[in-house]
Amino acid sequence: MVVVHRAPVVVLLAALGASSLAGCSLLASKTSLTDLFPDPALAACVAESLDVDSPEDAVSEDELDSVLTLSCRVDRTVANDPAALPAQSIVDLAGIERLTSLAGVDLSGNAVRELGPLAGHAKLGRLTLTNTRVSSLASLRDLPVLTDLGLSGNEIQDLSPLEDLTTVRFLGLADNAIRDIGPLAALHGLVELDITGNQVSDLSPLGDLQALNRLVARRNVVADVGPLADLPVLVMLDVTDNTIPDASAFTGFPVLDELWIGGNPLTDVTQLRDLPALLGVDFTGSDPSETSGLEELEASGVYVGGFA
């Protein structure tokens, strides 16, 4: 007679069942925010977002999934000055990957350098990292629905990771160390761009951005705005404090109605009156006694401002 030994099978099934129950229990259990987010300032920010009393409080996975926006903004007077960093500044973003429903994040004014934990956030539409210490954007390549990106006041030189962010509409890159804006040519949906305070000389990568509506490019080394002349919806252009030598560069610009052009070595602005939609020009930083054509501009109905 053949004897079938069933006990081990029963034991094995029981063990598997216990393991499964343990896994379910672990998923359903609550965990302290300080265990989930090693950086105490980040843990405190998440606690505030969840409206819990303390970062030591335990939260569930469902509670973490309920966090849609995270505002951990820190105000400090001097960007990138370690002495100006408050004690509550976030340094490490580890754990933020657990907030899988995030649609908006503001980390302005913190001391964040490594953005790895933000990679792959499938629902993240708005990200603000103004006045942090970011230099590498590599971790931002895979943010499929990102539309608003604020990166002003950092240490960024290389924009190549932004080539993949084709959903971005509003982009702030002021006060970095950028020379080459070539990668921005891929952002065909870009509506507003601020590149103030960089070292940009060539605007040609922006020449095919048909949705570009507003461009702020103060304090760069731009001498030629010709590449922008055919942009069909560009209504505002600020090129204050650049090196544009001649107003003849402003030929075309079919819908441009607001122009900021002070602080350039222009001596005659008469040709600006030929811009078909121009309503106003700001000359802040220029000397009216050294600029001819102002009266003709005003006579054509264009508002002239910016002179002390």
TrEMBL record:
The keyword Ribonucleoprotein does not apply. InterPro entries: Leu-rich_rpt, Leu-rich_rpt_4, LRR_dom_sf, SDS22/Internalin_LRR. The keyword Repeat applies. It holds the Pfam family LRR_4. Residues 1-22 form the signal peptide. It comes from the Bacteria. Keywords: Leucine-rich repeat, Repeat, Signal. This is Internalin A. The lineage of its organism: Bacteria, Bacillati, Actinomycetota, Actinomycetes, Micrococcales.
